[in-house]
Design goal:
Layout (H helix, E strand, L loop, with lengths): L13 E6 L2 E6 L3 H13 L19 H20 L7 E5 L5 H14 L5 E5 H10 L4 H13 L2 E5 L8 H16 L4 E5 L3 H7 L1 H10 L4 E4 L6 H8 L1
Parallel strand pairs: 3-6, 3-7, 4-5, 5-6
Antiparallel strand pairs: 1-2
Helix pairs in contact: 2-3, 4-5, 4-6, 5-6, 6-8, 7-8
Length: 234
C-alpha cells in the first residue's frame, strides 16, 4: 500500500494525458473530492460540526425559526451571485439556544460541499485569546490573524461572547475593517442584536450591518431556546 488516497494521481489532483504527441496535465477524477477534503481541513470545522445541515435543523413548528432557516438556505444558494456585492454577508443574532450556530454551520458546510467555496471557522473567544497572546510579536500576530483576514469566507461564531476588552475591540476592528474594505464575506452568529452591536462599537457594528443588509436574522424569545424546549418535552 502506497498510502495515497488516489493511486492514479498520488493525491496531487492531476494526471498526465497524452495529446498530440505531448504529455499534458489534466484533472484526475478524484480532483473535486480531493479539493473538498483540503478545504475542509483548512476550515477548522470539527468533525461534529461537519454533520450540521439544514435537513436536521428543527424549526419545531415555529414561524421565526422557519423564516431563519429559509433566509440561511437562500443565502448559500445565492452566494456565488452576491459574493462580490457590498451586501455579501449574513448574521444570525439573538436568543441563546435558538440554533444560530447550527444554521451558520449548515451554511458553511453547503458552501464547502456544494459551492466548492473555502470557509474558515473562527470560534470568537478562543481565537481572540490566541491572537492577544501573539500581539507583542509582529510575525506571530500576522500568522495568528492572517487566516481570518484572507479567508474567502469567514465564519465568526459567538461574536462578542463574554466581556470584550479594549484589546479585543482593537483586534476585532482590524479584522472586520480589513474584510469590509476588501469586500470579503462573513457569516456571523452572536447573541447581540443589531442595535447592541452598534452600541458596543459603532465602527465595528455599522460595518457588519452594512455587509449583512438583506441577510440579518433576528431570533428573540426564550421559547426559541431548544435546550429549554427539550427539557419541557422530556
Amino acid at each position: 500500500m502506497s498510502g495515497y488516497g488516489c493511486e492514479k494521481c498520488m493525491d496531487t489532483g492531476y494526471v498526465l494525458k497524452r495529446q498530440d504527441g505531448y504529455d499534458i496535465s489534466v484533472k484526475c477524477e478524484c480532483y473535486e473530492k480531493l479539493m473538498y477534503r483540503r478545504r475542509l481541513r483548512r476550515s477548522g470545522i470539527s468533525a461534529e460540526m461537519q454533520k450540521k445541515g439544514f435537513k436536521d435543523f428543527e424549526c419545531r413548528g415555529t414561524d421565526v425559526l422557519e423564516q431563519a432557516k429559509t433566509k440561511a438556505v437562500g443565502y448559500y444558494r445565492r452566494f456565488l451571485n452576491i459574493e462580490n456585492s457590498r451586501h455579501n454577508s449574513i448574521i444570525l443574532c439573538g436568543q441563546v439556544g435558538a440554533g444560530k450556530t447550527h444554521l451558520g454551520m449548515a451554511v458553511c458546510n453547503n458552501l464547502l460541499n456544494v459551492c466548492h467555496v473555502e470557509v474558515v471557522y473562527m470560534a470568537y473567544r478562543n481565537a481572540i485569546t490566541e491572537i492577544k497572546q501573539a500581539v507583542t510579536d509582529k510575525e506571530d500576530y500576522y500568522a495568528a490573524t492572517e487566516p481570518y483576514r484572507r479567508a474567502r469566507v469567514l465564519y465568526i461564531d459567538d461574536l462578542l461572547k463574554g466581556k470584550p476588552t479594549e484589546a479585543d475591540l482593537n483586534i476585532l476592528y482590524e479584522l472586520i475593517n480589513y474584510r469590509y474594505m476588501h469586500n470579503k464575506p462573513m457569516i456571523i452568529s452572536t447573541e447581540k442584536l443589531p442595535d447592541e452591536l452598534i452600541d458596543f462599537d459603532e465602527a465595528v457594528g455599522s460595518r457588519i450591518i452594512e455587509m449583512c443588509r438583506g441577510n440579518i436574522v433576528v431570533l428573540q424569545g426564550k421559547e426559541l431556546n431548544y435546550r429549554l424546549y427539550s427539557q419541557k418535552e422530556s
